[in-house]
Amino acid sequence: MATGRPLLLLPLLLLLAACVSTGGNNGRIGTPDPDEAARLYVELGFGYLKQDRLEIAEEKFARALELDPRRAAAMFGQGLVRHRQGRTVEGRKAVDRATRYIGDDEPLRRSVADWYCRVGAVDAAQEVLAPALRREEADAVLLLGRCLAANGQREAGETLLLEALREQPQSGRLLLGIAAMAAEQQDWLRAQAFLRRYEGVAPATSSSALLGLRIARALDDDAAEAAYLRLLERLKPGSSQKLRAPEAPRS
Prior knowledge:
The protein is 69% helix and 0% strand. By secondary structure, it is mainly α. Helix 3 runs antiparallel to helix 4, helix 4 packs antiparallel against helix 5 and helix 8 packs parallel to helix 10. The chain starts with 12 loop residues before the first helix and ends in an 8-residue tail after the last helix.
């Protein structure tokens, strides 16, 4: 799924800036390894994109492609820049081009699919996820299920998820993902049912405990709320104090 969002795990710009020569080389990265230089240009590009410095971001992606014309992440970055600039047709073409070179870069595959979902291109999202879907990867199934639901095909999305769950009934990722989707739709009893199934097959995590706390509060289940607060305190000491509901003011 996916956590929120293209290429979220980008290195800090300050760290990357240390790799850039400030001499008279027109801002080019000072490394003799073209592959490493292309990778750093891509990371810089996404850093500038995050800062909304679109022209500099596009320049970094172009530099990456000079060094490696098949660098899918740079093509994707160019597409994001152009789409944000209002050059939507050019942006879509760049993203489409990136899909032909993704290879085994699964995080990039999910980022591209997520972008297609957000612009309403559900068929393109499904196509780019196809290799991961054939492997029945839970993250890809969840992403497409969310994509379908978000684009007016909720029934198809739920069918996809339930069929995947029938094939992998012990998949904690699927169970927790379906529970989270049900909570987003405020279908609290369904969310609770899938969370309980998750808790029967997988260890508790801070994410599952937070979801359980949210469900308990929505259902006014004080005992469950207290239990999840204790669980969160055990998993992340000190966290439960921040999550406790404020006490009602005394009259």
